[in-house]
Amino acid sequence: xxxxxxxxxxxxxxxxxxxxxxxxxxxxxxxxxxxxxxxxxxxxxxxxxxxxxxxxxxxxxxxxxxxxxxxxxxxxxxxxxxxxxxxxxxxxxxxxxxxxxxxxxxxxxxxxxxxxxxxxxxxxxxxxxxxxxxxxxxxxxxxxxxxxxxxxxxxxxxxxxxxxxxxxxxxxxxxxxxxxxxxxxxxxxxxxxxxxxxxxxxxxxxxxxxxxxxxxxxxxxxxxxxxxxxxxxxxxxxxxxxxxxxxx
Amino acid sequence: xxxxxxxxxxxxxxxxxxxxxxxxxxxxxxxxxxxxxxxxxxxxxxxxxxxxxxxxxxxxxxxxxxxxxxxxxxxxxxxxxxxxxxxxxxxxxxxxxxxxxxxxxxxxxxxxxxxxxxxxxxxxxxxxxxxxxxxxxxxxxxxxxxxxxxxxxxxxxxxxxxxxxxxxxxxxxxxxxxxxxxxxxxxxxxxxxxxxxxxxxxxxxxxxxxxxxxxxxxxxxxxxxxxxxxxxxxxxxxxxxxxxxxxxxxxxxxxxxxxxxxxxxxxxxxxxxxxxxxxxxxxxxxxxxxxxxxxxxxxxxxxxxxxxxxxxxxxxxxxxxxxxxxxxxxxxxxxxxxxxxxxxxxxxxxxxxxxxxxxxxxxxxxxxxxxxxxxxxxxxxxxxxxxxxxxxxxxxxxxxxxxxxxxxxxxxxxxxxxxxxxxxxxxxxxxxxxxxxxxxxxxxxxxxxxxxxxxxxxxxxxxxxxxxxxxxxxxxxxxxxxxxxxxxxxxxxxxxxxxxxxxxxxxxxxxxxxxxxxxxxxxxxxxxxxxxxxxxxxxxxxxxxxxxxxxxxxxxxxxxxxxxxxxxxxxxxxxxxxxxxxxx
Lengths: 248, 584
Fold this sequence. Notes:
The complex is a heterodimer.
Chain A: E1 3-14, E2 17-29, E3 34-38, H1 45-53, E4 60-65, E5 68-69, E6 77-80, H2 92-102, H3 107-120, H4 136-149, E7 154-158, H5 166-181, E8 189-194, H6 197-203, E9 206-210, E10 217-222, H7 234-247
Parallel strand pairs in A: 3-8, 3-9, 6-7, 7-8
Antiparallel strand pairs in A: 1-2, 1-4, 4-5, 9-10
Helix pairs in contact in A: 2-3, 2-4, 3-4, 6-7
Chain B: H1 2-31, H2 54-85, H3 87-102, H4 109-119, H5 124-152, H6 156-164, H7 169-198, H8 200-204, E1 205-208, E2 211-214, H9 218-227, H10 231-260, H11 269-272, H12 278-285, H13 287-310, H14 314-330, H15 335-364, H16 374-405, H17 407-422, H18 425-440, H19 443-467, H20 472-480, H21 485-519, E3 521-524, E4 527-530, H22 534-545, H23 548-580
Antiparallel strand pairs in B: 1-2, 3-4
């Protein structure tokens, strides 16, 4: 067992009072799994991802990583953000290098490693560009390169394709699958948050469905379809319909 | 949960109230027995009033301003960083900053001067330090608030990225926080410098009761030129000031703000438009600067490399940090903060204890007859401030909106405002007073005009900044639906700039209360120009009679009025405006 969520509860204090976002979430994730978390907006799925990353401490409950209770940010996870989270004052390469500098790597290693991963995600030649000069798809590639460059085991993705146009998101989804399957990369497990059901069924081994706020797990569905998956085939459509009925 | 929230609000009020108590105690401690500065044995350093001395004194003033600015910069960054990254620090520091910025500093000048001078009696350095401290107080609040605002409005994802990738500590400050505050810091620095120049005169001439002391500088030069009726020297001094302000704009602020555009988060078409600056062109193209930069890079790289070799291996450093964190986690939670709070509490108790005697003495003494005039005077001053505020609003609002709609106008308005705001209006007071009183036959008009010089620029700077953040989409929507212009102003523009209008109003009123002390009572060539007002009472009490009890009563009344106005009216208005008219 790679990761265990043990009775996670989470609540915010708001001026209007206490808002419960997650209620009694228990689940476990194995190594080499591709898990998608879906749910209506505001159900706490992004918060759950941040709790897994160690960015947010849950109000109650524990996160166990490799059977050890997690305190603080998990160094074996790397995160890809919905709005990319790139610093506008750094070039693409400097954005990646900053994450490596935080690891304490010497400048030369930072540079070669940043260039290696930028090349892998198809940004070779754009290293010197500033984020504002790039399209949404290229920005997300940069975000992906930064996550891969710290050589994590778990890739956490928060609605990674929501800010992209349809064509770009198709190619980038293929890219993510390729990275997950490729033994050359350190990443062996992917946890992705999304509100697009087709996206979850296309990519994931497992889909965890959360209820509207407060988010509880209403279903945990295994997708037994061979890859590459075809959206127009009957089994695919059936999975999508099943998830829809759970959410409605 | 609701109960806990109320406690939190009360805690902020507690900090604010404690700060207020400390200030009032300080007032009592310094002023209650009257001011006696004669034992400080000061020697005035008066430089002869002549054209030849002008460059020298200007340089001295510039030096004082620069030192004060650097101190304000360090202070602002430290305080804002603590407040933006630590919830505990935020709850203590923000109410205190809020209080300090609204207190009329001019009323505390003698106290501050006394403190500094008694540390090193008879030495020029003490006076210089006092003067620098006074300039510092006129620059710092605006900068600290600007930096704090830039950091507390950072996009949420940005701070999460830093957290997720472990970009912490010095690395996080250098690479994330420092760049992110630059656009706002530079914009607010311009206003702070203007404000410093405005108060330069009060900071270079220290005249309290029988004591008259001054430092050689541009401020004292201007005052003497005006007092002696040397119009030529007055103009020369002003020309020198304008030269410095314009040179700083062209050589420093303009290139810096263009460069800082790269650190903005929102990238709209208007911010993408590169402005021109010959400094930037020179910096990026000239072979001299290119060589300088190369040299700088080489030196800094060598420095970093040697430092790294000397310092701990990275892995060991990380382990040490984690070890201390574990120790801290085991210590009772927030013990350091409780310790600090206890120390601060002890200090407050000690001050209250010390002040108790003088307060009792104050009540035993017969109340000075002028004290009965205070409520009426406060009302009269308030009306004058209100008139000046409305005049300021009437011209700054249209100008700010006009500037936000046309980049060409903005490029002219901001530098002009910066220059005009820098003119130390106090140097022109004799001329304004004499001319206005001659034509209107009344000091009231002159007084309002003087107040206006201390209020309008805050409004303009804030409104221009606010109006330029109105999203282009909102403007386009207004145009697409063909909103009639009055409707567009009322329904789209005014709500959109409401938060900055209120921030500007708070600072403008703060500046106004401050300017009251010098705007209501004026002695020129043996002739006294005065109106009935709290500023006049305070000015006479501090600078002429040295009447301790009267100073305490009137200063306390003024601080009370300022605090009530900001807390009851402005803060509430700001909360409503920032919730209802949020642009996101």
